Each structure stands twice: as structure tokens, then as C-alpha cells.
Amino acid sequence: MKPKTGAGGRDRPNDPTVLILTSLASGPKHGYGLLQDIEAFAGVQLGPGTLYGAISRLEDRGLIEAVGAAGRRRPYRLSRAGADVLDATLTGMRAIVDEGTARRARSPAPRVATAGGPA
Amino acid sequence: MSSLRTARILAWLYPPMWRERYGEELEALLAEMSGGGRLPWRARVDVARAGGRERLRAAGLDPCGAPSDQARGGILLVLVSWAVFVVAGTLVQKFSEHWQDVTPSHSQALPSGAYAGLVAVAVCGTVLVLAGIGWTIPALVAFLRDGGWATIRRPVITAALLTSLAMVATFALVVWAHGLTGRQRAGHDTAYAIAFGAWALLGTACLFAWTVAAVAIGGRLSLRDATLRLETRIAVAVAASMGAMTAATAVWWLAISDSAPWFLAGRAVGEGGSPLAPQMVAASALMVFASLLGVAGSRGALRALPALRSHGLG
Q1: What is the pLDDT of residues B250-281, one digit of tens each?
Q2: Of A111, B71, B107, B124, whose CB count within 10 A is highest?
Q3: Beta-carbon contacts below 8 Å between A and B
Q4: What number is the ipTM of this complex?
């Protein structure tokens, strides 16, 4: 069985847990700040329920931690374990990107069939 | 409706412990997202779905959780489906009373075989469910010793109170029935028929209250992987038994509609009638639904099995 190395064990770049860890890599943020940052760097609009579902799981796993409270908003930051998991996740993604890039460089562009017959 | 009020209502979709920890933050986020106006429907739907997921997770039914949580979730889904099946089975049992009395003796072999098979599988299924529950007793004892009672008190007390009420109602109904004729008991005394219907509803409420309590308890027990593997196999067998009972019921129904359609139509012997008796249609639909739920639960538990195996010792 494939070991769970990634943030959510899935290593998908659009996985909410990966997006949150990546966002927190630049410093603590609260819920709304996370949503805005993630949309800015990944173009992904996370829903509020999805965001807090992922936050609660990451906090349960000790990958992020709350940093006091600012009114009703509570900022979160990456924990040491969270930083390690993010590093491992990014390494895994980088390996796939590198492999894909190398394969595309080695092989010609695929021919696309059209409705009228072979291209 | 103000965005703050909407946010508060949406936060109530989450389980109490989750709400206590994240509720205020979620409300603040929803208020910020609405910007003083209306909260977008997309966001509302997202929160509602996430709230449902958290409720499942709190009940130990997290479909995205660890393999042990997935297995546990599947097993508990089979338990819920069994409760639904019991209600359907009881409807069939009640409806089919005295079918032999009005079915020609030369046509009884097939429906008798199907009915006997149905009863036999029902007994096996019940034994399996009880065995599955019994197997978790050591974990339950450990859970209670560790102070777990406070977390399961509410559903258990609710189920116990309903059961006490049902026992009193059963006693009263039996005493009443003794003073009635067979014809009155068969539905010709309106007051008794209403009381019987209320008693049946109370019994159903008891069954579901205990199922809810069992799910609440099952979601919190620390079960070894070996136990989960065994429970998964039991769940698969229980799901299979529901499928077999549904098939046996269908065979019985078809056989009776061929040899004694008057029984299904509620008419005198020899008269025709539609085989689509509403009670049988409702009970069969419920049986199929419960069976499908059981298949879904056992499939979920089975899918987690390889991961449990790879984790080795339980």
C-alpha cells in the first residue's frame, strides 16, 4: 500500500489541506485571510465549510495550530510537523512535475483526431 | 434573514463539540464573506454539506477518515440498514398472517418454502447482529471504565425511557386484547386498532432509538483491527442475509399472487384482485432500500479491509 506522505494522504495540489498548508507557509492567517490567499495563488475558491473541515482535520493531526484569537477570528500557523508534511508533499508533487516535463520533452506532441477523419 | 442569523443557523448543522471549538470562527467567516449582504447559496450549501460530514465524523462514520474509521462507518451503516429491514420484515410478517388458511393446499409448496427460508435467514441474521454487538462488549466495558458514559448518556437514556414506555404500553395492550374477541382484535374495534398502531410506532421508535445509541457507542469504542475485520465479515453476512430475505419475500409474493390473489387483495377466497397490495409494496420497497444500504455499508467496510490488514497487528 502506498504510504501516506502527503497532507491529506492524497498529494493533490488542489486538496484543501495542501492549499491551507501552502498558504500558512508564508505566515499565520485566519479563515477569511486563508480563503483570499488561496484564491490568489491557486485560483481555487474554497467554500467556508470545506475550509473549516480541513482546518479541524489539520489541527487534529497537529499540522497547524491556533495562535491566540483576534476577536472572533482565530489565526492559524504551520506547526513543525505541518512544515515537514508540506515539504514531503511538495517533494512528491515536484517529482511528478519533473517526470511529466521530462516525458513531454522526449515525446512529440500527440496528434489530435478531428471529426472529419484523421488529422 | 440577516447574514449573522443565517451564519448562526448554519453553525447549528455541526455537532456540539465541533461547534464549541470552531462555531464562533465559522460564524465570523460567514459574516465576512457576506459583507453585510446575503450569504451566497454556494457557501450555504458548502457549509451544510460540511456540517453533515462533521456529524458523520462525530458518529465514527467518516468516509474520508482512517481505514479503521471507514470500516467502522460501513459496519454501523449495516447496523442501521438492519434496523430499517426489521421494520420492513415486521410489516411483511403482520401482513402475511394466516396466508396458509386461504391458500389451496396443492399450491402451498413454493410459498411455504420461501416463507420458511425467509424465517430461517431472519433467525441467522438476528444471531449475526447479536454476535456482532456481543463481540464489542469488552471494548464497551473498557470505554465505560474510562469515563465514556458521559458522551453516550443522552441517546442511551432516551432509548431506555422509550423502552420502559413501550413495556408499559405492551402490558396495557395485552390486558385490553384479552377482553376483546378475535374479530375485534383483527381491526374491527377502531379504538383498539388506533392503540395498536400507536404501539407499533412506539416499538419502531424504540428500535431506532437503540440503533442511534448503538451508532453513538460504536463510533466511540476503541476497536482493535482484528475486531474490525471480524465485524466487517459479520456485516457482509448480515447484508447478504437481507438480500436473501428480500428475494425470499419476492418469491413468496409472486407465488401467492399466482395461487391466492384474493389474499393479497383482501377479498373472499376464489375472488380475483390485484397482487399489488399497498402494504406489500411499501414493505418490499423498504426491504430493497435497507438491502441497498446494507450493501453500501458492507462495501465501504470491505474496501477498508486491505488497509487494516496491511496495518498488521490490531
Answers
A1: 999 999 988 888 888 777 777 777 788 888 89
A2: B71
A3: 63
A4: 0.79
